[in-house]
From TrEMBL:
Domain spans labelled Fatty acid hydroxylase: 39-116
Named cofactor requirement(s): Zn(2+)
Location in the cell: Endoplasmic reticulum membrane
Gene Ontology molecular function, alphabetical: metal ion binding; oxidoreductase activity
Keywords: Endoplasmic reticulum, Fatty acid biosynthesis, Fatty acid metabolism, Lipid biosynthesis, Lipid metabolism, Membrane, Metal-binding, Oxidoreductase, Transmembrane, Transmembrane helix, Zinc
InterPro entries: Fatty_acid_hydroxylase (IPR006694), Scs7 (IPR014430)
Record keyword Lipid biosynthesis present: yes
Single biological process term from Gene Ontology: fatty acid biosynthetic process
Family of this protein: Belongs to the sterol desaturase family.
GO cellular component: endoplasmic reticulum membrane
Membrane topology term: Multi-pass membrane protein
Upper classification of the organism: Eukaryota, Viridiplantae, Streptophyta, Embryophyta, Tracheophyta
Source organism of the structure: Eruca vesicaria subsp. sativa (Garden rocket)
Stated name of the protein: Fatty acid hydroxylase domain-containing protein
Amino acid sequence: MCYTDDSHHSRDRDGRRVRTNNYGCGGSSFGETRHIPFQLWNLAKLLATPSAAPALFGGVLLGYVMYDLTDYYLQHANPTTAVTTNLKKSHLNHHFRIQDKGFGVTSSLWDIVFGTVN
């Protein structure tokens, strides 16, 4: 089954959904999703030196995968620490109560900066 980011909020309790499985699913605003890694690679080559481009590309991909796994964990697991419990509370508020606040999945830092703390 293919899930897009558009269905993220409507299917967030579906344990089969992990966004990292989207490659090859179909269209997105950037063209087909499977092309995004190529676009990111070209952007990394444009922004960095030839020797630094692979590190930039790998860092962006790792960051995205870690973000997505954290999102999945907060929706499907029972956090055991105060930090993860607070992140889960904020994340579930974002999904089910106040969808225009609480965008920070892994940290509330940018919610504080942009005034979107819930």
